[in-house]
Amino acid sequence: MTIRVLVADDHAAVRTGIVLILDGADDIEVVGEAEDGESAVAMASELRPDVVLMDVRMPRLDGISATRALAGVCDVLILTTFDVDEYVFGALRAGAAGFLLKNTEAQSLLEAVRVVARGEGLISPGVTRRLIAAFAEQPPARRDPAPGTDPAGLTPREQEVLACIGRGLSNAEIARELDMAEATTKTHVSRVLHKLGLKSRVQAAIYYSEGT
């Protein structure tokens, strides 16, 4: 299956470089380019890509606000120059599936797109520990459960799935560890996110780390 990607960055040279990398993969197709947040939201809503590669600092509408606007429309992977700062925290709270630094190697970028397209979360390996530690010090933005739910309402199996997400396991790895079908794993992950009022696996991993 071809992964459809929208690239959003206000620097034309950066967009061109990213597009060249993505176009070199047989399983990835760039369906559009946006030069600001407003264009990214409009194009993503129309084109419905599988993944949006989103810069943080953009004119008209920043990447964080654009990510928030695209919640439920498509998965957003943040590409940022900053490893740990308020922009990254805001993006994760807005529902981004993860983030990478712009100096990421081409092959790692391609693999990140594939991971996010599978519905899994991803954080640049070099900053994971710093990100979670710093994020935990920030005032929580979505620690409240969704209306009518309670974190204690997670079933024992859902608690196990949450623990696996907190360890950074993919759906396939969770399925193997808990001895269940991958489709069932995806269902449990969706239920965990809904019950905890979270938007992404990355938020679930941070949620888990803050409570342990």
UniProtKB/TrEMBL annotation:
Pfam families: GerE, Response_reg. Coiled coil: none annotated. Residues 4-117 form the Response regulatory domain. The modification 4-aspartylphosphate is found at residue 55. Transmembrane segments: none annotated. Keywords: DNA-binding, Phosphoprotein, Transcription, Transcription regulation. PANTHER family: TRANSCRIPTIONAL REGULATORY PROTEIN NARL-RELATED, TWO-COMPONENT RESPONSE REGULATOR. This is Response regulator transcription factor. It comes from Nonomuraea maheshkhaliensis.
